[in-house]
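Problem 12. The chain below contains 644 residues. Write out its predicted structure in token notation.
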Amino acid sequence: MPSIKQELTVLGSKTFNLKELFTNNYFIIPDYQRGYSWETEHLEDLTKDILNITKIDGKHYTGTIVAAINESRSNTYELVDGQQRLTTLIIFLNEIYHYDRNEFKDIYPIFISRGTKGNERNVLTPNIETRKCFQYAIIQHQDFNAETKSHESIINASKYFKEFLRKDDVDPSVIYNTILTKLNFLFFTPEQNREIGIMFEVINNRGKQLSELEKIKNFFIYYATVHSRERLRKEINLRWSDIQISLSKAHRTSNDDENAFLRYCFVVFFKTSKDKSWYVYDECKELFNVKDCNEDYIDNAVDRMRDFVEFVALSAKHYSWFFNGDQFDIVYNGEFKTELTRCLTYLRSQPTYASIMPLYLSIMSRLDIPHQVVRLLKLLEVVNMRLYVLPDIFRRADSKQADMFEFAWEFFNDRNWNSENDPAITYYNQVAIKGDIFEWLFENLVQITDAFCPENRFIDNLELDYGESFNYYRWIGIRYFLSCYEEHTRSQKAKRSFEWKRLLTGKKNIGHNKNDQLSIEHIWASKNMEAEFPSDFHTKRRLGNFVLCGLSSNISLSNKNIPDKIAELEKQNGAGEGALDMIQVAELSKIFRLVYNEMAQRRKTKNYWREMADKICEQREEVFKKFALDRWRLPNEKTTEIND
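Solution.
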């Protein structure tokens, strides 16, 4: 049979069925291509199409395959477009082969692997990101522990097709014949391989959207290829595998997740505006002009790319530590591990982190001086709490983010700064800075926090004045605030640690004990006595009207009266499996009894319950304010002790 190259027309294109396409030919997925990404919905669409095609005569146009001729190996093509579909069909055919190796023995040499023993060559070679997984899970048909989202997709596809072929209404022989002979592809090879870069960009603006992270990887490899920088290409491939594994460990693998991560890295490494930082791919194309062939320019660009990729890989590791405490515990064996663990626990437990993440990554790049990193991370948690977690400090969630990004960039890029050689003052409050770059960042973070959230405003944000419409039940930080308070009271009164995993546990991950997930409960229920005191009544929205409890308690307590609710909380708070075991619940019970005894002679009118709730809130809020001032104080603020 003639090769595809011989069959192609003058325009470089022709239609082939799958058997014709693969016979005597090999396909490589270039490293600039994304890893395998088809999800179950795409697999379902494919099998539905194939089942429909089995019922009709003739051939079915399935899509276009764009490939570049590999000049170094005969009958070998590098896939530019269509690689996801072809990979899927090979996985499908591999499962048909393993369904009955005798009946479908022809599949292996045509689509899977060819050559004599010891000299086998895979017909389809994926990019480096998925190559190992493809070899074990598909070619060798063995178990493989997925490390990245593309690995998970490959394993999922294999499992899906295996189950599909065992359905009662599916005939594997009919499916095999349909895939082989009825699926037709337009196969196109550009006349010059230099067209591939342009075509790749056009092609990847349609279909499944690439993340910005995938785009810059592709662009850097394309740049390295155009300018014959093979070492850079290899280094990118090596590091990108590490990046993908780290992001998988962080459980941040969606396109939006990758875009956000890359943005954080970009604002640390390159000085850019907050708005432009959302378009990293476009920014990189401007920074590194492929058309500029000056050797000095290329050398500088390659060095800069290499350094950036190294930073992204390092940051991905630190990103995994931020979101996955177990990963930090396994990997990090340096000094101050206990202190760093504590800092990371607090930071990952806060409900928002977008404005401080570049600072976190910038600070973590200096783990060569761990005690300074611990000092800055402790302050970073305070800064985030007071500026971005507290309600109504800023009207916009990203206010002053540009300053935070600039702090991160300066700290990373001017690491040898010293006040003796270059005197400086803080961005806010114009305080003179003395010392090195660590002192520069520390003082700037203190002063920006003091400028926008001084002590009096900090306290005001924990109080609800009459006429204010805010509801602390809607505050994103209330679970974190009450968890920190619980941790404090445990250490002070019970000498027991607080399980922070209970705060981070989602509903999907809880077992039979729903109290493993912490929830917020009203003390005076929003719907209790609703006719007299509506759900948005001032007292019902106060910070002191909320207590941290387990999810099962939250469900069972519902709209009971205050005494009944507190009695039930106290009962569930006792020892035994599934117990709440919350010190603040015991404190609440004590406060309630004091208030109840104080009001013993009062008639139980509707205002009796309102006044009781107000008194409970007032006592709890006084304790909360003193705790908060001590817990999140700035170095220039005095310590406030909590009364027992």
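Discussion. DSSP finds 27 helices and twelve strands in the chain. Students who got a different answer should revisit the alignment rule from Section 12.3.
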